[in-house]
Design brief:
The complex is a heterotrimer of chains A (about 450), B (about 575) and C (about 325).
Chain A lengths: L5 H14 L1 H18 L1 H4 L22 E3 L6 E13 L6 E13 L1 E5 L5 E3 L3 E3 L1 E5 L18 H36 L5 E2 L11 H29 L5 H27 L3 E2 L1 H13 L3 H11 L6 H15 L2 H14 L3 H8 L4 H37 L11 H11 L2 H4 L6 H24 L6
Antiparallel strand pairs in A: 1-2, 2-3, 4-7, 5-6, 8-9
Helix pairs in contact in A: 1-15, 2-4, 2-15, 4-7, 4-9, 4-10, 4-12, 4-13, 5-6, 7-10, 8-9, 10-12, 11-12, 12-13, 12-15, 13-15
Chain B lengths: L1 H17 L4 E2 L17 E6 L17 H5 L5 E3 L6 E3 L2 E6 L5 E6 L13 H11 L13 E2 L2 E2 L1 E6 L2 E5 L7 H5 L6 H17 L17 E7 L3 E6 L1 H4 L2 E2 L11 E6 L3 H9 L5 E2 L4 H12 L5 E3 L4 E2 L2 E7 L7 H8 L1 H10 L2 H8 L4 E3 L23 H10 L4 E2 L5 E2 L7 E7 L3 H17 L2 E7 L1 H9 L9 E7 L30 H15 L3 H18 L2 E3 L1 E5 L2 E3 L2 E2 L20 E2 L2
Parallel strand pairs in B: 1-13, 2-14, 22-23, 22-24
Antiparallel strand pairs in B: 3-4, 5-6, 6-10, 7-8, 9-10, 11-12, 12-14, 15-27, 16-27, 17-26, 18-24, 18-25, 19-26, 20-21, 28-29
Helix pairs in contact in B: 3-5, 7-8, 10-12, 11-13, 12-13, 15-16
Chain C lengths: L1 H28 L16 H10 L6 H13 L5 E2 L4 E2 H36 L4 H15 L2 H19 L19 H39 L2 H8 L4 H13 L1 H7 L2 H6 L4 H5 L5 H11 L2 H29 L7
Antiparallel strand pairs in C: 1-2
Classes of the chains: A mainly alpha (about 450), B alpha+beta (about 575), C mainly alpha (about 325).
């Protein structure tokens, strides 16, 4: 089936990938975004939480950068002016005018800001920044928020959360979805034993047998207890209520009899497809918003809220594998009957080998596209959580939170201070890049599409 | 024979109309003269949360249908003076021992279904509200310190309220709205509380909702719109000074718009007539639209502060951490913390310049209750540092935080409810200012219910350090909370050990009961002033700042309040006196 | 096959109990309950709150609350809403119907638009049209729906300001004075209000579905049997639609089951921002209030629909793809 040997496969894939120009650009943009997020302290001119109360700089528009000296009319090193704040009599919002009387503030590169140190990767302390201007001049590339915090710095730092939030969760849910969906599809119709009758206790069975027996007895006991409690608590005293109570009791007792009869005689067999797909349905019933609220309440407030947030979203990935598992199962159910798989089986290939070499690759196209939609999906999901007030909180920030702040401002975010829409642009850039990258990868890894 | 009786009853009712004692709505409550008024038209408003029931006994929302269609009772306040005036009562008299108030009910008032409104209606309403099994939200208002207030019918048009002790807020109790005994009574007698709870759900036919007030339900579309229509029976005894029946309007439409941006859009598009924008962004949009001639409307910026408080509370019950416990119980520490709260910056940054700093438990809008001479511990980092030094925090550690002689760092956790962006920003300002002084504040935003759980937990060891939260519901008669001031109170949030820990808490508790039973306003005000002075010394909680009230309306409406009484308490207008100009 | 269907139906019972119990447990795990907010009211005493808690049965152990609720469910009663003091179904139903006004057209529109875009993108891979369409789809994808709705409102408002004409309403589902309109006008009025929310609801999902469709189509088009079909001299149309398309949609059939519960699950944030009286704002309120049985009841209905939907889509899967066998 495979045409290329694995050693040249990678090279071929790389060459194919390079042909996909948009994918290459997507990759480059992502590289830049991730580098900026990783070295956020270096790329941002200010600490993302730095603001001054006197004079206030809230809702400051992007600082205009001058390249022409107004006095001489000639090109010069880029510089900015300090600004003066007034309150607009109509909108009651602050207005800022350039104040040349304080002189020019030239943009300098590789400046040090001893009053605002930062740490890289939580380890290296530094205060070197890519660019900046001397105080009291200020350079706000994308304006400021209502505190007067530099929006560009906040976008750069916000990327740290937004660009990483989905990865862990997506990986967890994809690993589980692929594995369980694959098993469900491939082993559908081949039930396995979930208990050992006493006569089959030998070897490891001496350990597993009693264990499974105890487990099932527990299940039976639980069923009886619940059925009995149900009848005991039942408030109704009419015929219908007694009927319902009766049915429930019967169900409970029936389940117990069934379990007891089978557990001692023969193994209880369950189709893995049923087991996994019913589990998917049970998990689908979990209200994820509630789970989020509950889980966050479980962690002590001492723990860093950002860490809690990551953990909780990661846990969401843990329950979010159901949809993918269903799709993968569908594909696998179809693929396992294909001639080449049947041929491999006839040739005596093991199940593991067939799954790894023939079945899972068939899902690759769907999975890669789906993954390249899921990771940016988390960036958007995070903004939705912020909209509900369940996202990251001060002093941390994320693109979603920044965009939600723009949403809160309402139409003023369009008319009075359009610069607060920048985070939206970054979300767009990241989503687009991930998807183009996904396209390119899909094409590159698909052996049949190589031209 | 039977028919003749009915006919006679009809005659008597008619006679009642003829002699209906009218309540004349004073001219000074509105800017419009009766001659300018036009009748008819629809007022369109919006609310942020959906209605949940038509049933007055189980309603629990802030804006609910029963209070909207029939907001009034025996007495009401005159917005120009704040005094209680007889309304559905024609007059009242107070017994010499101040324990009984006897109301003469206005004659000729009728329910919207034509039945007369009599003392029985109040008695039945009170019975149902005070039936524990009904679970009415008004239950507690009929008790003072657990002792019941009782109502007695003297005759059909005379009612007597008996109080267990003199009460400054007596009229507040008597203000409750009556509901028709001929509707609720039979059900209550036959099926009890369970029967009452099943009545008047949102699926009830609108024509079955009987009202004594200005409005009747015309239609309700779930989650979407409530349409009310004028109650003609109300107009028979409510007139303006020219003798026109009220309300002027035919209809009152309330649209349910959860998102405030959508509400703003509807107001800007001229689709709703009333709005109270809460942020400077929304105000700016309205003012720009007015200035550019796109919208003909009026907005009163900074009409008044809002009627609620916002504060930071420290937990006095931390047995597990004696260091923090003694810190939080120390008045010097709390005063230092008040000095690091930059209220001006909060107003400037969080409320866009349109807010009001707060210094006492009395809401700034209750101007007659605010003691102007109470010391204010304003933003002053140097003073804060000095006070902390007096507590032994003189050295700073490597990270720049203050430590005492034993090397214990000055540090505490601060929480507020997640999703409240304004409180989160206030917390941020406090964290940053504290850091400048050398106090480490660890801020977390937590789920509202968790926060309330922590705040209201009781015992010697409670799970929080400091919380930013707010309260509303203070009253004009006596602005101190019955749950807040007494040491056993459920909302005595700083100390829930169940007993007073500071002598001044005991003092406040005593003054609270004295004030509540003092019927003379001047003397009560004195007591209130004294309480604020003690509060300022004790600083049980540190008040921060709150937003302002900025009412706006479309200029197709007339009949708003004069400027002097437009406030968060009285609102922008009486709907009864509101009319459509064009 | 019959045995398979029977077995699936039998499995519905434990799945139903397991899922409802898990959901119930998680709702109860969340801090506080319906009465927590009342506790901050200075006028309400703790005794009153304790009494109400007992009345609502919130002071019982979780498993007892669950069984009592289950008892109601088996009487086909979803329970009682605390906030509305009315049966859950009675409260939920009108909102679900309102939501369907958006959800059904937008789902149809989604499939009608996204699948052709996906197929086109695969057939004319890397053409200008493919690039333009995917770019537009990504724009839709990358603006969160709550923000897109705000932009829509803003644009509508500006149009009204500039021209004085209300092209589409800013928010809501009906105009003022709706009750007085004749039935046909009412229908038109709702349709007029629904246009923008439907478009906003669709915009987000087009990219996802069309990208997946495009990927699947490309995958199938590159397979040997397509080459064989082409070699046989079949027309391109037959190859594309009879052979390729039919194989490419197989994975989507597996997700069709999810559409059934999504019928009642509402159109999402657009309902909140554009004041559409659907189930989303209602459900968010219920979550904020912890209106236990509203949430649990709603989840149960979704769950039942999901289980039925999954069963149907599994059967459909076997039908579209004869290779799939269930033993």
């Amino acid at each position: 089936m495979e045409r290329a040997a694995p050693s040249t496969g990678l090279a071929l894939a790389l060459r194919q990938f390079r042909r996909h120009r948009l994918a290459v650009w997507g990759g480059r943009i992502l590289l830049v975004l991730y580098l900026m997020a990783a070295f956020a302290g270096f790329f941002s001119p200010y600490d993302p939480n730095y603001y001054e109360l006197y004079p206030p700089k809230g809702n400051h528009p992007p600082t205009r950068i001058h390249f022409v000296d107004p006095e001489t009319g000639r090109l010069t090193r880029p510089f900015v002016y300090a600004t003066r704040r007034t309150i607009d009599p109509v909108t009651l919002q602050p207005r800022y005018e350039e104040d040349p009387s304080q002189g020019k503030f030239y943009i300098r590169f590789f400046v040090r800001t001893p009053d605002q140190p930062y740490t890289l990767f939580k380890v290296f302390r530094s205060d070197l920044r890519l660019f900046g201007v001397d105080a009291p001049g200020k350079i706000f590339l994308m304006g400021t928020d209502n505190f007067g915090r530099d929006l560009f710095s906040r976008v750069v730092y916000g990327g740290q959360v937004s660009l990483t939030i989905g990865i862990l969760s997506a990986l967890v849910s994809f690993a589980l979805g692929l594995l369980l969906g694959g098993i469900a599809g491939y082993f559908s119709g081949r039930p396995f034993a979930l208990s050992l009758p006493p006569k089959a206790w030998r070897g490891v069975g001496w350990f597993l047998g009693p264990l499974s027996l105890a487990l099932w007895l527990g299940v039976a006991g639980g069923a009886v207890f619940l059925a009995w409690s149900f009848a005991r608590l039942s408030p109704g005293r009419d015929a219908l209520s007694f009927l319902v109570d009766g049915v429930v009791l019967l169900l409970g007792v029936g389940a117990v009899v069934l379990i007891l009869r089978r557990v001692f005689r023969e193994p209880l067999r369950i189709d893995p497809d049923d087991l996994i797909m019913r589990t998917v349905e049970i998990i689908a019933a979990i209200p994820s918003l509630f789970l989020l609220i509950s889980l966050r309440a479980v962690f002590p407030t001492k723990i860093d809220p950002l860490f809690t947030f990551y953990l909780v979203v990661g846990l969401l990935g843990f329950i979010g594998w159901g949809g993918l598992a269903r799709v993968v199962r569908g594909i696998v159910l179809s693929v396992r009957e294909m001639d080449y798989v049947q041929a491999a089986r006839a040739l005596g290939a093991s199940d593991g080998r067939i799954i790894a070499r023939h079945v899972l690759p068939a899902t690759a196209s769907y999975v890669i596209v789906s993954l390249s939609l899921t990771i940016p999906g988390f960036i958007l999901g995070e903004s939705g959580l912020s909209f509900l007030g369940l996202g990251v909180t001060e002093p941390y920030t994320s693109w979603g939170l920044l965009l939600q702040a723009a949403q809160q401002g309402g139409f003023a975010s369009f008319t009075d201070r359009p610069w607060v829409l920048w985070p939206g642009f970054f979300i767009f850039l990241a989503v687009l890049s991930w998807n183009f990258l996904g396209d390119g990868l899909r094409d590159a890894l698909d052996p049949r599409r190589r031209r | 024979m039977r028919r003749a009786l009915v006919w006679m009853a009809g005659l008597i009712a008619l006679a009642g109309v003829a002699s209906a004692q009218t309540f004349v709505w004073p001219q000074r409550w509105t800017v419009a003269k009766p001659s300018e008024v036009k009748r008819g038209g629809t007022l369109r408003a919006a609310v942020t949360s959906d209605f949940r029931t038509f049933n007055p006994f189980i309603t629990a929302e802030a804006t609910n249908v029963p209070d909207t269609i029939s907001p009034y009772g025996l007495v009401r306040r005159d917005p120009t003076t704040g005094d209680w005036i007889p309304y559905m009562a024609e007059s009242f008299s107070i017994s010499p021992n101040k324990l009984e108030i006897t109301f003469k009910i206005r004659r000729g008032m009728k329910w919207s279904d034509g039945r007369p409104i009599t003392a029985d209606d109040w008695i039945m309403t009170w019975r149902i509200h005070t039936d524990k099994a009904v679970g009415s939200n008004s239950y507690d208002s009929f008790f003072i310190d657990g002792k019941p207030i009782t109502l007695r019918k003297i005759d059909d048009y005379t009612l007597r309220f008996t109080y267990p002790r003199p009460d400054a807020t007596a009229f507040f109790v008597a203000e409750f709205t009556p509901w028709p005994a001929h509707i609720f009574g039979p059900v209550y007698q036959k099926e009890g509380a369970e029967g009452i709870k099943k009545m008047w759900t949102l699926n009830e036919k609108p024509e079955n909702i009987v009202s004594a007030g200005p409005w009747l339900v015309e239609s309700y579309r779930p989650g979407e719109r409530l349409v009310l229509k004028r109650n003609p029976a109300f107009g028979e005894w409510n007139k303006d000074e020219a003798g026109n029946p009220l309300p002027y309007l035919d209809r009152y439409e309330i649209k349910i718009v959860k998102d405030t941006n959508a509400q703003l859009a509807e107001f800007l598009a001229g689709n709703i007539d009333l709005m109270a924008p809460s942020t400077v962004d929304h105000i700016s949009q309205i003012r720009q639209a007015i200035q550019q001639g796109r919208l003909d409307a009026t907005i009163k910026v900074n009409a008044s502060p809002v009627a609620s408080s916002q504060f930071m509370v420290f937990n006095w019950n931390k047995a597990s951490d004696p260091f923090k416990q003694s810190l939080f119980r120390s008045e010097k520490f709390r005063r230092a913390m008040s000095h690091i709260v930059n209220r001006q910056a909060v107003v400037e940054i969080v409320y866009g310049g349109l807010g009001t700093p707060m210094y006492s438990s009395v809401y700034p809008v209750l101007t007659q209750w605010v003691n102007p001479k109470v010391p204010k511990y304003e933003y002053n980092p140097q003073q804060a540092a000095k006070l902390l030094a007096e507590l032994g925090f003189t050295r700073k550690d490597r990270e720049g935080y203050l430590v005492d002689s034993k090397g214990r760092r000055l540090e505490f956790n601060l929480a507020t409810n997640a999703g409240n962006a304004q409180r989160e920003q206030i917390a941020k300002l406090i964290v940053d200012e504290a850091k400048k002084v050398g106090v480490k504040v660890n801020f977390t935003a937590i789920d509202f219910n968790t926060l309330v759980g922590q705040l209201l937990s009781s015992g010697p060891d409670r799970p929080f350090d400091a919380i930013i939260i707010g309260l509303s519901g203070g009253d004009l008669d006596w602005p101190f909370g019955s749950n807040v001031v007494p040491c056993k109170g459920n909302l005595h949030m700083w100390n829930k050990s169940g007993q007073c820990l500071d002598p001044r808490e005991t003092q406040l508790e005593a003054l609270y009961s004295r004030g509540r039973t003092e019927l003379d306003f001047k003397k009560r005000q004195e007591i209130g002033y004294r309480m604020q002075e003690i509060e300022a010394q004790l600083l049980p909680v540190i008040y921060i700042a709150g937003p302002n009230y900025h009412p706006a309306w479309n200029n197709r409406l007339g009949g708003e309040h004069p400027d002097a009484i437009i406030s968060a308490i009285w609102g922008q207008r009486e709907l009864e006196l509101t009319f459509i100009k064009k | 096959m019959t045995a398979y269907v029977l077995r699936r139906i039998l499995y519905l019972i434990p799945t139903f109990f397991g899922a409802t119990f898990l959901a119930f447990l998680i709702i109860q795990m969340a801090p506080g309950d319906y009465l927590t907010q009342l506790e901050l009211d200075p006028k309400v005493t703790p005794e009153t709150i304790a009494r109400l808690r007992a009345q609502f049965g919130l002071d019982r152990p979780v498993y007892e609350q669950y069984l009592l609720w289950m008892n109601n469910l088996l009487h086909l009663n979803l329970g009682y809403s605390f906030a509305y003091q009315a049966p859950v179904l009675e409260v939920i139903w009108p909102r679900v119907v309102n939501s369907m006004v958006i959800v059904i057209p937008s789902t149809l529109l989604l499939y009608l638009v996204a699948i052709p875009i996906g197929v086109y993108g695969a057939v004319r891979q890397y053409s200008f049209g493919d690039r333009l369409l995917s770019f537009l789809a990504y724009v839709g994808l990358s603006v969160p729906s709550f923000f897109l709705a705000l932009i829509a409102i803003y644009v509508l408002l500006q149009i009204k300001f500039r021209t004085g004409v209300q092209v589409f309403p800013v928010s809501g589902m009906t105009s003022s004075g709706f009750e007085q309109m004749p039935p046909l006008r009412q229908l038109l009025d709702i349709a007029w209000h629904a246009v923008v929310p439907i478009l906003v609801a669709v915009a987000n999902d087009i990219a996802g579905l069309s990208r997946l469709m495009r990927g699947q189509m490309l995958e199938v088009l590159s397979q040997d049997f397509i080459r064989t079909a082409r070699a046989k001299g079949l027309s391109e149309r037959v190859v594309l639609y009879k052979h390729a398309f039919r194989n490419a949609v197989i994975p989507f059939v597996a997700t069709l089951g999810g559409l059934l519960p999504s019928l009642i699950s509402g159109a999402g944030f657009v309902e909140v921002v554009m004041a559409w009286p659907g189930i989303t704002p209602f459900f968010l309120d219920a979550i904020a209030n912890q209106d236990l049985y509203v949430i649990a009841g709603f989840l149960t209905v979704s769950l039942v629909l999901l289980m039925i939907g999954n069963l149907i889509s599994d059967l459909l899967l076997a039908w579209v793809d004869p290779r799939i066998r269930y033993e």
